[in-house]
Amino acid sequence: MKTYSIALIPGDGIGKDVVDAAWQVLERAADRNNFTLSATTFPWSCAYYKETGAMMPDDGIESLRKFDAILLGAVGWPAEVADSVSLHGLLLPIRKAFVQYANIRPHRLLKGVEGPLKTSKFDILCIRENTEGEYSGAGGRVHVGTPDEVAVETSIFTRTGVERILRFGFEQARLRRGKLASVTKSNAQKYSMVFWDKVTEELKPEYPDVEVTSYHIDAMAARMVMAPESLDVVVASNLFGDILTDLGAAIQGGLGFAASANINPDRSAPSMFEPVHGSAPDIAHLGIANPIAAMWSAAMMLEHLGEGAAATGIMTAIEAATASGTGTTPGKDRTDVITATVLAEL
Ligand code: GGG
Question: Start and end of every Isopropylmalate dehydrogenase-like domain (predicted)?
Answer without folding.
Answer: 5-342
